[in-house]
Amino acid sequence: MTGKVKNVKSAGAEKPGIFDALLQLFFPERCLQCRIIIPPGNRIPLCGRCENSYEGLIRICPRCENFSRSEPDCGCAESNIYFSSIYALHIYEADWRSLLHRLKYRQNSSLARPLGLWLGNQLLTRQEKGFDYVVPVPLHKSRERERGFNQSALIARHTASALNSEYHELLEKVRETASQTSINRQDRLLNVQGAFRVVSPFRRGAKILLIDDIYSTGSTLKEAARELKNAGAEVHAAVIAYNPPRFNRS
Amino acid sequence: MINELVKRSLVIITAAYVSGIIIGRILIEDLRIIILFAGIILFLFAVGISYRSISLYKITLIILTAAAGAAAYYYAVMPAGENLLSYAGSPVYLEGTIIEEPVLHDDHAVYHLRLEMLETAGAKLSIKGNLLVKIYGEKNESYWFGERLGIRGTIESPRSQRNPGGFDYNFYLRSQGIDALIYPAPSSVNSLGEGHTGFARGAAIKLRSKMTDQIIENLPSPSAELLAAILFGQRHYLPAEVEDNFRRAGAGHLMAVSGLHVGLVAALILGTCRLLNLKGAIPAIAAILCIFFYAYLTGMRPSSLRAALMISTVLIALLMEREQDLPNAISFAALITLFINPLLLFSIGFQLSYAATLAIIYIRKPLEEILSAAHFPGILISPVAVTTAAQIGVIPISIYYFHHLPVAGLIFNLLLLPVIALVVGLGLSGAIISLVFSLPGSILLWASRPLLEFMLYLTGISSMPWLYMTVIPPKTLSIVAMYIFISIFLIFYYRRGNEKNKKSLCLLAKQVDGLRAMRNLLNKRLVFFISLCLVLLAVFFIFPQDSDKLLTVTFLDVGQGAAAVIETPCNLVIMVDAGGRPAFRGDPGVVGEKVILPFLRYKGIKQVDMAVITHPHEDHFGGFIPLVDQIPIEKVLISPVEGGSVHYQDLLSRLELAGSGIIKANRGDLWHCGSDLKLKVIGPPEKLFRGTSSDLNNNSIVFILVYKNVRMLFTGDIEDPAVKELLGGGEDLRANLLLVPHHGGYLEAMAGLVDRVQPALAVIQVGSNSFGHPHPFVLKSLDKAGIPVYRNDLHGAVTVETDGNDIRVFVVDSPLVSSF
Fold first, then answer.
1. pLDDT in tens, B503-530
2. In B, what residues contact A, Cβ < 8 A?
3. Where do the domains of chain A lie?
4. Fold for domain A81-178+186-242?
């Protein structure tokens, strides 16, 4: 069901199993950007042309939120960090806005699978692996029921399978919060304060990958990460799209 | 292997299989069209090769699939081994179980029987097959679903197509899985108690009939029948008028259980599951099971099966977190449907359903763009686009089969669709709930009543003459051309779309992608152009333009009776009799409605220049009765003999009222059109026959039709006195074609007539009858003279074509051509 990537080093298309082949026969894989049909088993769900224009995983500095594609660290000196690393597949712009909108609001769970796998595969290329748990940022129960699904959870499942790590819903949202998109950037951190709770214990020092769809101010992720870190985890985060602040602090 | 399939997608496989079925049909039925087919294949391969290099391996795969399709068709029409039809015509005793809900009419009942045992000539045989049992007679004992019957009677094979443009009952029944017919007398049918129908079938049909009962209990007629038709596709009890109104309104599809209905069922189930907070795979699986049960409940017709298959692929996509793919979904649905029964490809329901769905998939988007560019109100864009797209897909087919153009179809559909959604929701939940809780169910059913009445009222408007048109059906080829045109437009549309915004659909996008990969533009255009030329060439060779220089006479098969339509090179249409049913056996005009009018429409005939009524018997004039209001008849040539039934007098006065000139024929009258075409009246004599065994017959109009060097003698129903009178006169009776007098009834002077006429061929207009027509003596006389005989009862309609020198004969039953 979830085209498992067993060996990352075998680049390009993999030989699909019968079941995957059957699925591909009915529901062919498409390029996420230009929507044409692509062969199954690509590590990146893009067609050749779009793949060429894809610039690769973004690394966001956990402190100053500057991003780069190559530097391991931006060298800034901020403190109070919750993450060991943050990665994003892409900048939140142009086509990616509508892509994520489709994922979030139009019940388009079919997008979560390629995105999740892609994210996982990209992390592998950066040698980011060996996570004990892949954990989605949770929605509040009533919210999830209303929407029918939690897009972060859908993505995280597939990221976990690409990384060969265990998917675990370690967190719970205990309090309903106003939608982050409805309030301004400054108030967002306050909005989510104390909203999350660790629901099952884990070993101290466990390496956890926290998954969400978008990183804007990072308030939600930071709050979730704080909770996990307090429980003794080493927290990494990965998102589909990064929406950087208009003016970067230098 | 799997990899290859994966790349090629279902679409190709389905296309190959469908083509195979068509090849199968063509190979069996009409070899001439194979050239056209070869042209189309060439075209497709040329396009295919130009878009992407097709490997030999793939071509082999395609051809094998096509071969499977052809074989499937072959075995569907010609079942291997022993079958029911080998016993057609001989008296048998048989036993079987009723496996469909019986259809009970006022004067007859129809049962679908699965055969279990057949006894003939003392031998008990276990032959499998399905029979349609029709028991005529009022107030018969009726039998029920699941009952076993023992029947004594004669198995009959259903009639194939009898007339050009006519209905092929045999093929139709075969596509419904029925092998043969039996018309037993009510007294030779006995109930043998409860039979086995299979659990699922039994449950489904019983459930359906219980729900139908609830509907009929709670709603008045015809609302109840309408609701049953909408929910379950059961149209047997729907008044024909209501069905006609829906069809005229372009809304006939509402009574075929389709995507709308099945989608609503799926939505109801998914909604319920969500209310119950069920998660994971359960809702989707529950929905899939329910929609298949619903499709089964409605008889697994092509439209409901298509909808169920397509919607379940969509649900599976949801379950598997995959993106749905409509072209693949529809291909899959078609493949499964045609795998079960390849003959459905030729059923109207299948064609309408798939044409509408394909059109919605592909035409909707361009229409939405056009509408939004035209600043159409936002909320209306999507429904208008979907409805229009479906209409575009369906109209050519509906014109072709029903000869109706629903002028206001779009408006009717836009008004009806929201209503039907409500009606299906209310009606279905009402019918289900009423099985358990009577009152709430009834309330839901009552609530649907005003909606149903609104639908009845609205579609009733459609019978206004300017809201629908009866049109001349275009030739098959024009229909195909129309669809090719639409497809080419769409290919170009999606190609442009793909280059512009990179958002396109699977199949087309793929092709277009391949197109771009082509090395240069010139090359691509060249291939396209060449293949187009190939098709045009093929079309041109197989369907030569009808030469204006041909005289065509079609002797229609009207059962026992006579009807011939003459189309002359000077564009005159002359009808010689129009068949009819004897008045004592019901409406004498029925042949006109069922045979003559469809034929005239098929031929594109809008006016009859002269109608010859050889004599006032119903089997010669009855078919004109329904024509009076439908097609203008310029002149009517009648026999000077007095008499004839009330129906005859009534027909004449209605013709006069409609403005036809009524002319009594006299011996020696000469009609002509140009110098090449003459019609010379040579009978009856001035002094009419009196006191013969039938004065009406003997005073039939007899005439010779002359076109250049070809002569044809039309003889009506004359008997010995008139024939002898003719033979005694000096008239030149020589003719290349002799229409044998009086349906081939006994004629003492037959040998003499043959001797004088010296025909190259003879036509006998005869159907099954109790008079012993044609008489062996008549046949023997013709046989002795070595004259080939064409009979409507054996050959179906006989078409004679001549350029004034040579004569060619076509018969409906076989595509072979004879020349004289």
1. 434 444 444 445 444 444 445 555 566 6
2. 2-3, 5-7, 9-10, 274, 277, 313, 316-318, 320-325, 328-329, 332, 498, 502-504, 506, 509-510, 513
3. 16-54, 81-178+186-242
4. Rossmann fold (3.40.50)
